[in-house]
Amino acid sequence: MVVAHPDDEIIGTGGTISKLHAEGKTIKVIVFHLGGESVRSARDLAAGEDVRHRELKAVSDYLGFSHEAWAIQEITDRREVVRKLVEEIRRFKPDVVFTHASHDRHHLHSSVSSAVTEASWHASQLYYLDLGEPWRTSSVYYFEVWDLFTSPSFVVDITALMDRKKKAMSLYSSQLEAFPTIMDYIEALARVRGFEAGAKYAEAFQRAPVLPEIR
Is residue 42 part of a domain? Predict the structure, then answer.
């Protein structure tokens, strides 16, 4: 999973992460930027980033995923970022990659989505062979944060896991301060997606146009 900031993974996929972990799947979250400037009580950016990193570790320990923070606030050298992602995909060898929706209005969210989509294709091809052997990820899926899908490819029923999702989000205490109504948003979005699936709570995903599925 590749996200722009800590907490994006919970807003978009917190329940799905819990479900995959319960199924014994190995999960890794790559975070582009810790976003310390959103910590209002921090004296400076470095202090804010330290707070966000501690929160990310607490969440990863709670939900059972590993994580890595890359300190990329802006994608200024796209080729360098794509190469870094290709190398990570070939090293970790994921079956599925989750990332932001391509139409997300946050500039880093959409930039991350585009770079991950391209890198997932490059990783499967005979490109950048200095970065390892090609690895074909079966699927790349986009998740929702601020901008919603008109027609999701599928939804995941997280009714039994909604409390874990909310608990995980509560561990990002700095973000509850920065976005006081975020818990209401998370619950409302999950209810909307659950309604579509005939469940109480759900999370929505859209399949990225990277490679055709093999069946």
Answer: yes
